[in-house]
Amino acid sequence: MGKAALRWRIGQHEDAETLREHPAIREAARMLREGKLVAFPTETVYGLGADARSEEAVSRIFTAKGRPGDNPLIVHIGHVSRLQDLVAELPTKGELLVRRFWPGPLTLVLPHKGTVAPKVTAGLDTVGVRMPSHPVALALLQESGLPVAAPSANRSGRPSPTEAEHVWEDLGGEIDGLLDAGPTGVGLESTVVDVTGSVPLLLRPGGVTLEELRETVGEVRVDPALEGDAHPPRSPGMKYRHYAPKGEMWLVEGSGEALVHRIRELADHARKAGRRVGILTTEENRFRYKADRVVACGRRAEPESVARDLYRALREMDRAGVDYILAETFPAEGLFRPVMNRLYKAAGGRVFRADDQCPKGSSS
């Protein structure tokens, strides 16, 4: 701790079995077994891993991230068979979801056996478990032989890391190792579903859409807590401000010409007030705005590109030094549902509607 982590760069490989022979994977796995912290890529974002059975190792995650102690962690496994070591039962609907989406960006909340460190569950009788699909993540998990607790590898509240450099910026002096395998694919955290009841409950939208969940198991409810704080949080991301850039961020709800026109007005007003303004848009509109920084976040016609680029775009705002950010919004459906969930969190709930006159509470 207090010094730069070891950083290993790993090229593209086809499968986890081949990667298990990689010297960096073996070294990183050894470090996890010794109770150290290792950041690694998943298909969603980079995670900060520690032995989920060790209270001491897990405590280091909270210290490194500055993470609140009542925010539970997700446990990552390298084989579906490892579930039996962690959970008391896998309901039928949970089994259906595992068959379709594992390995992949889906976390299931299940009753635990008490085999993980208490800090992992934040005192709850359930634990979130997932099996990632990224070959580097799978190789590390399989080689270590451990269940690995791994939240996103960033300072708590900051945009999640989708590139190794983001991890290095936030935590390079707080962790022991970093496996660098380039940008992640999905770009948003995993979907979290509680399957302990008769009807599955969506706790956090993510890489698996609500529509895909319903295609697989029928009815899926959406937790009302997604619209506000929950106490205690049953899933990471349900409480506290998350994913936030350093500047004051506002979402602008609307569509078409009305949306573009209102963002232009707000940007002009803020700049005249002496603010450094950033605008978060998509490729379709990037040349229609003037500001201190205009950042395109994928293409509106390709929701997966927006999801993949969101956190990179928010970090780009920080690098540009803007202190006031206006962000376009999207219809909350499909992959845009988790995008909007993250944007609302990043903005701390600050929303301006295109037909309003001025954002209530705005310092501009």
Gap from first CA to last CA: 41 Å
Radius of gyration: 20 Å
**DSSP strand content:** 15-25%
CATH topology of the largest domain: DHBP synthase
CATH class of the largest domain: Alpha Beta
Shape call:
globular
Poorly predicted runs are 229-233, 359-364
Helix content: 25-40%
For this structure, what is the CATH homologous superfamily of the largest domain?
DHBP synthase
Give the number of helices. Answer: 12
Strand order of the largest sheet: 1-8-2-3-7-4-6-5-9-10-11
Count of DSSP strands: 16
| Averaged pLDDT | 92
Structural class: alpha/beta
Secondary-structure element order, N to C: EHHEEHEHHEHEHEHEEEHEEHEEHEHE
Number of domains in the coordinates?
A: 2
Largest sheet: 11 strands, mixed
CATH architecture of the largest domain: Alpha-Beta Complex
What does this 3D model show about the protein?
The protein is 32% helix and 18% strand. With 364 residues, it is an alpha/beta fold. It has two domains: 6-227, DHBP synthase, CATH 3.90.870.10; 248-353, Threonylcarbamoyl-AMP synthase, C-terminal domain (Rossmann fold). It has an eleven-stranded mixed beta sheet with strand order 1-8-2-3-7-4-6-5-9-10-11, with helices on both faces. Helix 9 links the parallel strand 10 and strand 11 (221-222). Helix 2 (23-33) packs across helix 7. Residues 229-233 and 359-364 have low confidence and may be disordered. It comes from Planifilum fimeticola. Residues 22-208 form the YrdC-like domain.
